[in-house]
Amino acid sequence: MPLFRYLLLYILLSSAPSVANRYFVAPDGDNNSGDGSSASPWATIDYAVATIPSVGGDTIIVKDGIYNGRNYLTESFERWVVITAENAYYGFRIGTEGDNPPIDNFFIYNNIWSDPTGTMTNRFIDIYGDVDVNSIVLYNNLFWNADGDLPTHGSVLPADDTGRVVADPELEDNRENIILPVWDETLEQFISGNTTVRQEFERLVFAYGAIPVTSPATDGADGTYMPKDDILGSKRDSLPDIGCFEYGGIVHSTFFPKTGAIPQRQPRIRVCADNTIRIRLSTAPGTSVTFQLFTVSGRKVYEKNGINGNFHPPYYCSTLPVIPFAKGLYLGTVLYGTGRFSQILLFH
User: Fold this and answer.
1) CA dist., res. 199 & res. 291, Å (int)
2) What is the pLDDT, as a whole number, of residue 141?
């Protein structure tokens, strides 16, 4: 249900919530005999959520330790409920449990570790179980903790990265107007206006995972250790970018070629020097073509239906007039027949 998504979002973004009551969960707690206090905690988060008053405004504090099993949170509250760790935790953990095989030769290259609020925990990577910590290699990662120091505690540290970049990746950090991926059953679409999960996924990537051309991550990756495509399926160029997103790439995964005798070529949208837009794709004459333009936050700012163009086999080409929008990144989408593709566009 939608409230669960809002609850998760608030958990992730909240750092210093005001609270009415504090309840505790611990690995050695008991849902039957516990009362939710620090001295007598409950055992699971879902039990705590189901037990606290429905008026909300409280905080559930999760004590350190290993928890097994799953939690299903389905309660609703009149006010926010915050679930938080008792102590600042590690960025992530690498470890083995039970009969897991040993872990060695673990390589972490070309990632972005960014906290624009400057509240990154001081503990970076925790190791437990059968792990060869000396074979864990950090290299060419970008770190940013705003005005805060980078972590100095943990089994592996940013300082161990001999090729590290310490700089602002210039990712979007405004969280005030987030449009969550909530489905509207009445309209049969997401509240953003999108109709598919893939469209919502792309919207969120462009809004919060897309680096600008001015980012120090642009062209900064070591190509020897990079996958050939990015999080959207875009092909990386000869100078790949640090992180999951490749600036200026074509979103290949949303391209569905039409069938027929016409040779298929990768579609393309181009922003020309005068801010006109040129579309090229492989399709048959008479195909209905629509162009849409979205901001990185997912707001549609332009749509042109029934675009007329010239057919020069194997391409359909069309040039749209000047679109007077502010400089910056946009997502252009072309719909044609049963095909669809999107591409990141930069207005100069």
Assistant:
1) 15
2) 97
